[in-house]
Automatic annotation (TrEMBL):
<feature type="signal peptide">
    <location>
        <begin position="1"/>
        <end position="26"/>
    </location>
</feature>
<protein>
    <recommendedName>
        <fullName>DUF4251 domain-containing protein</fullName>
    </recommendedName>
</protein>
<keyword id="KW-0732">Signal</keyword>
Length: 152
């Protein structure tokens, strides 16, 4: 685990140094990857933009295939392998905000290449009467084994 943490911190340091070289690259580079405590979670702050289909958000009055532009604000991974991704967005103009908070549970299967490809996130979308949307995806164990569990 120690070498994995050192690799992540090394990558974050190099990315941080490269992002200082130009304002344009700073927009797309890793800004922070901070470990919370000696054996705590890694928190990666980001501003990656995604189009999330309403089938995952459950916004009343909007077609299931309609998409909402949302910005990922953070990605958290714990030593036990649990990961959480948080995205925020706003209802598009012309879409009425609900009169009360709407909470919608669904799942999302990762399609992008990487360690989580093919894994299924449990998701919760919360749409507020103000029109703000928070979409949180949680994957219980991306490493295939939790902390303290041995491989068989």
């Amino acid at each position: 685990m120690r070498s994995f943490q050192q690799q992540i911190l090394g990558i974050a340091l190099v990315a941080g140094l490269l992002s200082v070289s130009s304002a344009a690259s700073a927009q797309n580079a890793v800004r922070t990857a901070v470990q919370q405590g000696q054996s705590g979670a890694f928190v990666h702050k980001t501003d990656q933009v995604y189009n999330i289909p309403n089938a995952s958000l459950g916004i009343p009055g909007l077609a299931p295939d309609a998409q909402i532009e949302m910005t990922q604000t953070k990605f958290i991974i714990t030593p036990s392998g649990k990961s959480t991704s948080v995205l925020v967005g706003k209802l598009p103009s012309g879409v009425a905000a609900p009169t009360q908070r709407v909470v919608y549970n669904s799942t999302y299967t990762e399609v992008a290449d990487g360690p989580t490809k093919g894994r299924t996130y449990q998701t919760v979308a919360v749409t507020e009467p103000t029109g703000s949307i928070t979409y949180t995806g949680t994957l219980d164990n991306i490493k295939g084994q939790g902390k303290g569990k041995s491989k068989k």
